Amino acid sequence: MVRTYRTLLQLVFIVTVCMSTSCKQEKNSYFKAAKVKNIRLKDMFGINAFEWDFLQNPNNLDDIDNIYEPNMWLIKTFSQVRHYLDWEKLENTPGGYTFNPTHKGGWNLDLIYTRCKQENIFIVTCIKNDPDWLYNTYPANQRDNENVPAPYKSDREKPASYIAQAKAAFQFAARYGQNKNIDSALLSVNKNQRWDGDQINQVKTGLDLIKYVECNNEPDKWWKGKKGQQTAAEYAANLSAFYDGHKGTLGKNVGVKNADQNMKVVMGGLAKADLNYVKGIVQWCKENRGLNPDGTINLCFDVINYHLYSNDNTEWFSKFVNKKRGVAPELNTMGDIADNFVQYASTLGKKKIEVWTTETGYDLQDQSVQKAIAIGPKSAEITQGDWNLRTSLLYARHGVNRVFFYQLFDTDEPGTSSGGPFGSSGLVTKEKRRPAANYFLQLTKLMGDYTYYATINQDPIVDIYRSGKKEIYILTVPDEIGREENYELDLKGSKSAVVYTLDPNSESYNIKTVPAANGILKIKVTETPIFVQGL
Question: pTM above 0.70?
């Protein structure tokens, strides 16, 4: 009933527009151009992961060929990784910075990032959580590694309160950014540890391994109470220190930009997709950082970032209601929310501000409010693949620049259930790719560098992606009931077409060449996207 009512409204709108403009309504005349140009399909296929997901052996620090391979064949499925990196790994004791290996855990970050660069995997590092020496400044009953990254009783609206975190960000950017011309007196590593070797925690600069770094994760985490939740003004002050040492006023060795002007700072992914929170950060910047010479606001971020999971309540986390499960991405307000963020980013001046979503996805546990469901003969795993892929396509359609899914492996061990909403959200297991990962791998091979160009039909959705003069159409039924639709695709005179279909159990897609009578391909479209290229 709802779908029929919406369809009638759309038809009334189309007829009204045609009558008022004397246009001729033709088949497939709907055309929606890309909101943001040059969004590559493979930039929609990111994953969240931890350093231990790479299976590094701390006793074999220099063997780049063997340390990673048990998991790298799975990680290489994804074009980009958001690396959750706890601050304590960089600075286990105040001022004692370690990278290769880290004092906490013995992880070789140099090797992880080098290996990813070899595989052309884009990395954004999310420096998150507090080391114990910081959260221990809180009373015993308030100690939590997810506390606000400032000492107890700090003025949380002052950038100086976040100087310790911002100094760690400087050291990270100096090592992994592009700038080699950094005063060595500003750099520090702690060599006093149990490992030996010429390359162990030496000062290094300009390794050119990381181009984006994220300032904490979900700073608006209200479920932690005031000890963990920052207001927009408090987080803006935090960002300003992290970004450039509050315009250089906190010292030469504070903030990412003071180490590498080219490294981009990503806003910590917001747990609630609340645009007003971002507006609050911008307002703080206007009042406390002022204006640039061109009259634009001097911002302390390069990327706006929010989290959103497609379920019954896209207001997210106020309450889980109704079906208490995940829903297909097109059937809620995710697209509208993306539109609001993208449109607002375009108003922030000449400096290009990108919009990312660094957490989204679906779970496989029956009790999860974020679970994917079996649909007809399709298992929940296949639906997870369908919905994750369609989430990527939706975000490209609405102008989001990058998407990262939660997460690489399940949090819960096989055969166990934590009862939480995300315990089985992994896109791979230790042995194989799940359908979502197979889909991402297949499409990266087929058309990873193609960019979203336009949408020419709404139901089924028909998107056009381009690479130079080549075009591929992506057709999808935006539903979750196993619906199928017959569609006539205009291939602009092509006499035949290649139809690519996805295989949930393989790293390779299926290919079939079919005739197109008079340039029209009659094709059945399902809730699993299909891909067509005219010949």
Answer: yes
